[in-house]
Amino acid sequence: MNPSEFLVDGAEEAPRTLVLAHGAGAPMDSPFMAYFAEQLAGPRLRVVRFEFPYMRARRLGGGRKPPDREAALLETWRDVVRTLGKTEDLVIGGKSMGGRMASMVADELGVQGLVCLGYPFHAPGRPDKPRIEHLRALRTPALIVQGTRDPFGSPEEVAGYGLAKSIRVRWLDDGDHDFKPRKASGRTQRELWDEAIGVVREFVDAL
Predict the structure, then answer these.
(1) What count of Cα atoms within 13 Å lies in the side-chain half-sphere of residue 20?
(2) Which of 125, 139, 143, 151 could lock 203 by a disulfide, CB 3.0 to 4.6 Å apart?
(3) Vertex 162 angle, CA 40 and 142, to 5°
């Protein structure tokens, strides 16, 4: 992948790089992606964002193309990591689908860590078809940040999955798939975003 297609926040000489991929429906510069990248980036952490081929095609006027097939999404992740180089200082992940695809190649690529923001454990309304088999054997240290109201995976469901010991799940109280709480909770989406950012920063710093 051409580095000119990346969005980069933080110091170029930062000792660690976090690569974030977007979810199925929103691009790499969506408000969610932009806020997380800008707030996480700093002198010690560079944050890199990229887009899968179907999303780049949308940006170039290709209409509402659906996500690429899984094989193409995984190969894009491999290409991104090859382009960035050193894996010993690399943490990969992303929002929903982007994080799920990262989790499927994390062990293969030998990266230092994995961060998933709103993991799609199953399609909404389909808890009978979980997407978790590889998560039971994952070796890469991983953080999953999940809202307690996420229709893609609830605390009760996730508790019974038998995830690998390498995975830490942090729950955001009353958050949905985009970490948005109900007004009755007394909290705002920005507050939950900031809580998630704090958890991600703590995880990355401890690697």
Answers:
(1) 34
(2) 143
(3) 20
Nearest to 103 by CA among 156, 143, 46: 143
Q: Is 205 left (phi over 0), alpha (psi -120 to 50) or beta?
A: alpha
Instruction: Read off the amino acid at residue 137.
Output: A
pTM summary value: 0.96
- CATH architecture of the domain with range 3-206: 3-Layer(aba) Sandwich (3.40)
Per-residue model confidence as pLDDT tens digits over 132-177: 999 999 999 999 999 999 999 999 999 999 999 999 999 999 999 9
State whether the Cα torsion 75-81-84-85 is positive or negative: negative
3-state secondary structure 12-79: CCCCEEEEEECCCCCCCCCHHHHHHHHHHCCCCEEEEEECCHHHHHHHCCCCCCCCCCHHHHHHHHHH
